[in-house]
Structure formats: structure tokens, C-alpha cells
Request: fold
Amino acid sequence: MKGIRKIAPYIPGTQPNISGMIKINTNENPYPPSPKVSEILKNFKADKLKLYSSLDNQPLKEALAAKHNVLPEQLMIGNGSDEVLAFCFLAFFNSGDPILFPDITYGFYKVWADLFSIPFKEIPLNENFEIDFSDYNQINGGLIITNPNAPTGLFKTKNEIRELLKNHSDVIVILDEAYIEFAEDSMTSLLDEFPNLIIIHTLSKSQSLAGLRIGYAMGNPEYIAILESVKSSFNPYSVDMLAEALATAAIQDSEYYQKITGKICQTRDWFSQKIEESGFRSLPSQTNFVLISHDKVKMNELFQYLEEKNIFVRYFTKPERLKKFLRISIGTEEEMKRVAAVLANFVSK
Amino acid sequence: MKGIRKIAPYIPGTQPNISGMIKINTNENPYPPSPKVSEILKNFKADKLKLYSSLDNQPLKEALAAKHNVLPEQLMIGNGSDEVLAFCFLAFFNSGDPILFPDITYGFYKVWADLFSIPFKEIPLNENFEIDFSDYNQINGGLIITNPNAPTGLFKTKNEIRELLKNHSDVIVILDEAYIEFAEDSMTSLLDEFPNLIIIHTLSKSQSLAGLRIGYAMGNPEYIAILESVKSSFNPYSVDMLAEALATAAIQDSEYYQKITGKICQTRDWFSQKIEESGFRSLPSQTNFVLISHDKVKMNELFQYLEEKNIFVRYFTKPERLKKFLRISIGTEEEMKRVAAVLANFVSK
Reply:
């Protein structure tokens, strides 16, 4: 057969669904979405679904514009930040020079680069698992940086990002801020200063809407228009009518989300300290997960032990130096107390 | 700025939303989705949305497999048939030879070919606006045929399609059956016989779920696996949890949909005959729309006249020979009675 793409068969990750499990493997939010989301859902008339959704997502754009103090023309909305990022790769990384990203970061950047035949170079994190921006001073076709980075949880400050944007003013720099609401500060205030900056957010983590699929890009109107054109050339209606309505309700209820985000950060900091009692260490995280290690523990064994107790966490086998870690998403206080106890129990054996 | 894609700025189509309007411009279904969809929606707990949706869409695949008498492994589900088609272009059209499709057909095929730099050739419909498959006997990298075709509404029989599949056994032949439930017969029964056949369906038209975004591909498991890999390399969770639940409910209520599909076909046939009284002709449609013409009427003028009466239909300015037509989606009986009367009125002036 002619024309069939050569592509590695994909082995889907498992999304376990066991009653009583503690699911802390994919950085989901342990708290439900805002009660306002429930309310809109309950009152949504199914009859409306017979018509196509709006092409412009105006109500959601207005809610997001108010939240981030940007203009609606600075926003492009898609089916999860994965779709938005895929469109960004198609829209902005066409120079032929390699794009740069860390060797330890969101695993999907490499997959999109492969899919679209975009050359790329992975820049190793330093020995403290930090991104060292001086390593990026080389010819490139664009940058993509997760901030805070995943799965390390480490955050780059506004001054460091400003410097980076200045040094790479001839290419698009994408900041993937998937976990930013658990961190010090978003870089949205740099948008006016740097036209080469594109910031990506998702409602999957901080807004407890992983099952709904809403992500968005913010940037200067000229480049956002290019991004909209790519979306319109691929799947113009990818944000469905229901998802848009529920996402808008979520964004408008900032009070609720501040509350649950605060709780998660508190639990994260408590958990990081607590597990030190059993000899675990964790990188200083500004996300809703922690990357933990232990001098005397084989992480693949701990991973299996946890799974037997119906506690699902994430163990990375690649790259090599991640094998010394487990990534643990932050659940509720009760869940994390139990996890800390199980970790202590494993070490004491 | 380096690396920015050169792409025509997209001018979004309008989706009018005026109280009392007759919206028959985008082939939506005039009837609401199944009451079972409403029921599932009303009882859906928003709390579930905090988790990612299933990666495998198993419940929906099982419902569709039962409906079409295929195996779940023969199905790939995406965010509307637009996304599924875009993935098909990436998965199956990589030979370097031009893919072939009619010059008058779904306008998006050309857009995807452009976006992914796939060479293509548009084969003119014959003077009766029919696809002549003998024109496709030339070197090609794959075929994509809408059946029934849009915006003509004309249907190719199973014998003609079987012949086509035999003549092009070295490439993938995609049949876009977006309107098939309003036609004689789907080609799903040919799937076992022809491994090169991929069939695309959507829930936007016949299932009254345009606002929800569900489409799917059916084919042989080997090629469906390639398609799944492409999806997983682009946006693995593009089918959200709510959309999957509602779509499954719709597919399980075949009785309701047979009823409304029957009504639409009846109204279509009545309308086609009725407007002949005012001198209009229409191509024999097996879809939920008709393409109408009139020897003495300038269609752009009629289009505007209808718009003034809050009746929204579709007028194509390209290619040239479509300017003699209007495409009218089939609404409710009452709506089409009114439209027929307005058409008669325009002619009599």
C-alpha cells in the first residue's frame, strides 16, 4: 500500500479506574470543578447541540481576557493545550533551524516535532535539574519552555524569562504555563513588551477540567491570527459548545479556584516536608506535583509497591537519570497523609 | 521573525443567531438530539470532569461497532469528522503522488492538502455534476470521495464504489459518508472485502450533534492503528468525557434517529417537487440538503432576498459553475413550506 505513514505504534497510557484508588499519576486536580460549572451543566439544553458551536468562542475569550488583562484578539482557544501546542508547532516553527527545549520536560514536544518533521535539539538540564538559559545561546528556530518545568516542578523567574526573550527576539518563544497557577507568577505581564512571546495555559489542572479539553494561547494579535488560521485549516470547531459554556463558568469563578489552588499548594508543602522524615527528598516544586527521590530506595520497586496499595504515581524510565525519581501529583490532604504513611512504611521495611 | 507560517488569513463563516430565523445554511439537523442524550446530560456529574477522559473511547466504540456490524478495532474516534479527516491526510497520503478528489466537493480537502504540503489534483465533475470514476484512472497517491457528494447531493452506488476500490487497490480510498444516513446505503459492507477502504462518519448531521464534535473512521485494523498513532501524536484526548457519554447515548437510540431521518427525507422530496411549480429544479439529492437552480433567477439576488427574510442558505461563488445554484439544507416541514412560499414569491415578482 502506497503512502502510509511510518509511525511507531502507540501504546496508550492507562487511566486506572478502581474504587478507592488514590490516582496521583497524571497531575489531575483532586477537587471538583466550581459549583458554577455544575449549575451550567445541569441547566444546559441538549437541543442546542443540533447547531454548530460559535467559531469565535467570544464569551470564553472575554472571560479569559478579563482574567489575564489582555485583549480578546490576544487569545486563541483550542481542544486542550495539546491541540493548541500542536497548532503552535505548525504555525511558528518553520524556519528549518532546530527548535530547542530541555531534555527533561513535557514529553510531547518531541512527538510533535517528529510528526511535523521539525528539526529539534534537546538541551540537558544542569546537574541540579535546572534549565540553564545560557545553554540556549545557539542558532535555533524557536524555543519551547515549560514554566514551571515538568516533571521537575522548578520555576524560572520573570527576570530570567525577560533575559531569554531579549536574547531570542528573532524567533517565537513558547512558554507552556500548564502549572502556573500553583507558582509564583505568570509571565502574561511580559506580553506587551515581547511580541515573540506566546504563553499557553490549560484548564485541565488548576480548573479541574481535564475531562473537558480546553486550552488557550496568549500572544500578540498578529501571531495569534496566524494561529487561528492554522486552527481554521485543521479543525475550526474543535471547541464544542458545552465545553465552551462550562469553561466560561469556571473562569468566572476565580474565588473558588483560588481556594482550592491554595489548599493544593499547602498540601504540597506539607507533604514535601513530611516525607523528609522517612529520608525522601523532593525538588522545590511550584506545581501540583513533586518529584521525589531517596538514596536507599529503588524507585521501580516503590512504584510497584504503591500500585499494589492502589496508589498510582508516575515512574519515568527515560531519560536514565529520571529513574531515581517518582513524580507524585498532589491529591487531597487525606490522600497525601495516607501516601506519606505508605512511603514511610516502605522505607521502614 | 523567523519560522512564521505563510498562511492566508482566515475569514470565519458567520453562524447567524437571530430569533425566528430559518437557518438552513450549514446542513444542521432541524430536530433536537435523542431525548436519551438530554437524560444523560441532565444526570452527568460535573465532578467527573476533574479526571482525564478514557484514551480508548471503548463504550462509544462498542456502540458504534454494534451499529455498523464491525469490530471495535476497526474504529477510530475524533473531535468531529474534520479532525478525523485531517488525521487521515497525515496518516495515508504520504506517497508524493497527487491525491485526487472532485473539483466540486467538500471544500476542506484542498485546505488540508495545502496545510500538509500534499500534492493534489481536482478532477472536474461531468456536465451533469456527476463524479465520473473513469477520470480517476491515473497515477495517484490516494483518493477522497464524498458519497453522497456535497454540495450536489448525488450518490454513487455500491457497484460503482466496488469498481473504484478494485481499480485503486494500491492506495487508500477515503469515503466521506457525512450524509449517508439520508441515502440508500452505506459502504460499510465493503470494508471486509477491501483493506484500502476507509469510511468516515459524523454525528453532526444525522444525529443532530453538530455542537458536540464527534466523528469516526472505519477501516481495517492495521490502518486504523496507524490513524490512532497519528491521533496520539497530536492530541490523544480530543474526545472529551461529556461528548463521549452523549454520543454513546445517541448511537444507542437508533429508533429515534430513524424517525427524524425519515421525516427529513420526506420533507426533502416534498420540497424538491414543490419548488418545481415555480420553475426551480434540483439535483436528485440523497442528503439533507438540495442544490437548486432556476433558468430565470440570479442566485446572488435570491440569496440576498432570502437573507432579508431571515432565511439563511448557502451561495457558492467558486467554482464558477456553482454560481447558478443555491444549497438549501432541509429544515422542518413548516420551515420548508415557508421557504417554498418565499421562493415562489420571488419568482412571481
